[in-house]
Amino acid sequence: MSKPDFAAMSRLSADIDLMADGKATGFVRVPHSVHRSAYGWIPIPIVRIKNGDGPNVLMQAGNHGDEWEGQIGLGNLIRSLEPKDIKGRLVILPSANFPAAMAGQRTSPIDDGNLNRSFPGNPEGTITEQIAHFIEHALLPGFDYSFDFHSGGSSLAYIPSALAARLGDEARMAKVLGMLKAFGAPVSYLAAAPQGGGRTFTSASFRQGVVSMGTELGGGGLVTPHSLKVAEDGMRRVLAHIGLLQGPVPAPTPTRLTEIGGDDYYVYASDAGLFEPLVDLGDEVAKDQPAARIHFHDTPWREPVTLTFKRDGLVLCKRIPTRCERGDCLFHLATDVVS
Ligand code: CA
């Protein structure tokens, strides 16, 4: 039996040719018939810049709508790059879950869909599932490299970081490590290997044979000059490293190579209440060190609960909002990769 034509199943289509030479800007159209617009479509911005032969590269941000460095950085890249500046093909999808980005939310206001938990998608599913299906089956095939620019969003903040999944294939892993070093975020980390059935863009890229890396650039719903500089300088250095961007790039910056492992790297809220952090991003902590207190503002005479770290590590990520519920992630750690 021949493989079904997944791309042809999609209701979505780009209104520019993604393979042609030159620079073109347009939209991926998502048909969406609603009260105010009977035959309307949702316009997801997309850009193609191509100059002859070279690597095929997809850069995406706004997978989570409230993560901004990638969206701003890719906008700046779109306006500054011309075909003569590159060799190969660069396709940019700066606000992949466009309804979420326009609402300033992690998830889509249309269907509550989390795009990065929706792959491989469904051509007949919700709007978010249709976007995931289009990205995995119509967009990703044929690319050599993909980049997914995340940050902590509204509820988390990270030390600006780049990340990649651990791969069994040593040659591919070496390629990815070279990309992390070229990107040059203050911290890089290796995460769990992509799963065949995984629901993230990383897993989608893995299934489609595309070498992929991502970022966690900052967060808290904010952009800072530092986090945006990490994003933009990193984008240019890594595009030059893989042979797409021609000409000078920002000077290299060192990265600290770390990894995140199992559940013991995380601290979760045990109770609903007010989260008092006892450490900050960048701190080096030890096993059993107090991480946070949770205060009970409904019964303030009750002693707060103290939560501790389950292992040593670097505080890579922390929760931003003070009010927490049981099960909210408060911190996660990273540890140096010992080679
Ligand atoms: Ca994210």
Describe it for me?
- It is a single chain.
- This protein is of the alpha+beta class and 339 residues long.
- The protein folds into two domains: 6-259, Aminopeptidase, CATH 3.40.630.10; 266-333, RNA polymerase II/Efflux pump adaptor protein, barrel-sandwich hybrid domain (OB fold (Dihydrolipoamide Acetyltransferase, E2P)).
- The protein has seven helices and 19 strands.
Say how many strands there are: 19
Bound molecules: calcium ion
Inertia-based shape: globular
Number of helices: 7
> What structural class do you assign from the helix and strand content?
alpha+beta
**Total count of domains:** 2
Give the CATH architecture of the largest domain. Answer: 3-Layer(aba) Sandwich
Distance between the termini: 45 Å
Summarize the main sheet.
Answer: 15 strands, mixed
Query: What is the CATH C-level name of the largest domain?
Result: Alpha Beta
Strand content: 25-35%
Uncertain residue segments: none
- Order of helical and strand elements: HEEEEHEHHEEEHEHEHEEEEEEEEE
Rg over CA atoms: 21 Å
* CATH topology group of the largest domain: Aminopeptidase
| CATH H-level superfamily of the largest domain | Zn peptidases
Proportion in helices? 10-25%
Q: How confident is the prediction overall: mean pLDDT?
A: 96
Topology:
Blueprint: H1 6-9, E1 13-14, E2 22-31, E3 41-51, E4 56-61, H2 69-80, E5 88-93, H3 98-103, H4 127-139, E6 145-150, E7 156-158, E8 161-165, H5 170-183, E9 187-191, H6 201-207, E10 211-216, H7 225-241, E11 256-259, E12 266-268, E13 273-277, E14 284-285, E15 290-295, E16 305-308, E17 313-319, E18 323-324, E19 329-336
Parallel strand pairs: 4-5, 4-6, 6-10, 8-9, 9-11
Antiparallel strand pairs: 1-2, 2-3, 3-5, 7-17, 8-10, 11-19, 12-19, 13-15, 13-18, 14-17, 15-16, 17-19
The site of calcium ion has 4 residues, from loops.
